[in-house]
């Protein structure tokens, strides 16, 4: 990957899940701030995204790879090593959702959610963070979720993976507090992305409800990362939900979540369910 035309790139940013949604917006922000990019996703669209991001005046390498596997993450790591520069920013955003009742889910899809959200993310973070530690500098942003604060009826596996990411982020930040590396957890609520379509949740109340803007969420997360904050919940409604979740019994949270995430809870344009 060539450097920027004037050689004045601020550094190198790696962004996963960058083909759409929050990941794409994070990549755009990093590029607008002058960072060269290595972006990755498991969709062919990532190549076109790389071309468009290059129009912002930075060098971009786009990697289509399966971030739910060790081998797929290794492909991304190989691209980083081939670049020859150290990673300044790691924005580990890749994630996958899955709706409907757990017993009705295809376990192949269940495992893919777990492997993408947990296995691939933690493996990538360990590989890049070890590199950062050798330099004594670096910033890591993990995309968690306020879903991680509550048991998710009809999103049991997804919410469980986000609970892991939230917890993992806080623990890793503590371990790295004296190394020069900062770890930030971005915890958005429902956001206007392709998430609910991909998770087969368009017929749910939460799938049809008004959602936060992905660009706004990304700006909040990027700023928190650059400021070295430990965590940030985007949007005042989500902050309120997170605060309430911390003092509400788990059984009540699971029941409330089920009411908005169960199949068939959405309403059509006439307001009928």
Write the layout of secondary structure elements.
Elements: E1 11-16, H1 21-32, E2 35-41, H2 45-54, E3 60-64, H3 70-83, E4 89-92, H4 107-135, E5 138-143, H5 156-175, E6 181-187, H6 195-198, H7 205-208, H8 214-226, E7 231-233, H9 236-245, H10 250-261
Parallel strand pairs: 1-2, 1-4, 2-3, 4-5, 5-6, 6-7
Outline the structure in words.
This protein is an alpha/beta fold. The chain has a single domain (11-261), classed as NAD(P)-binding Rossmann-like Domain (Rossmann fold, 3-Layer(aba) Sandwich), CATH 3.40.50.720. 47% of the residues lie in helices and 14% in strands. The protein has a seven-stranded parallel β-sheet with strand order 3-2-1-4-5-6-7, with helices on both faces. This is Short-chain dehydrogenase/reductase SDR. GO terms for molecular function: oxidoreductase activity. Belongs to the short-chain dehydrogenases/reductases (SDR) family. Pfam families: adh_short (PF00106). Keywords: Oxidoreductase.
N→C terminal distance: 51 Å
Mean pLDDT: 93
Number of helices: 10
What is Rg? 18 Å
- The fold-level CATH name is Rossmann fold
Q: How large is the share of residues in beta strands?
A: 5-15%
- CATH class wording: Alpha Beta
Q: Helical content, roughly?
A: 40-55%
Task: Report on the biggest sheet.
Answer: 7 strands, parallel
Overall outline: globular
Number of separate domains: 1
CATH architecture: 3-Layer(aba) Sandwich
Uncertain regions: pLDDT < 50 for 5+ in a row?
A: 269-273
- What would you give as the CATH superfamily? NAD(P)-binding Rossmann-like Domain
Summing up helix and strand content along with how strands pair, one would put the structural category as alpha/beta
Q: Please trace the helix and strand order, writing H or E for each element.
A: EHEHEHEHEHEHHHEHH
GO molecular function, one term: oxidoreductase activity
Keywords: Oxidoreductase
Pfam family, one: adh_short
Family: Belongs to the short-chain dehydrogenases/reductases (SDR) family.
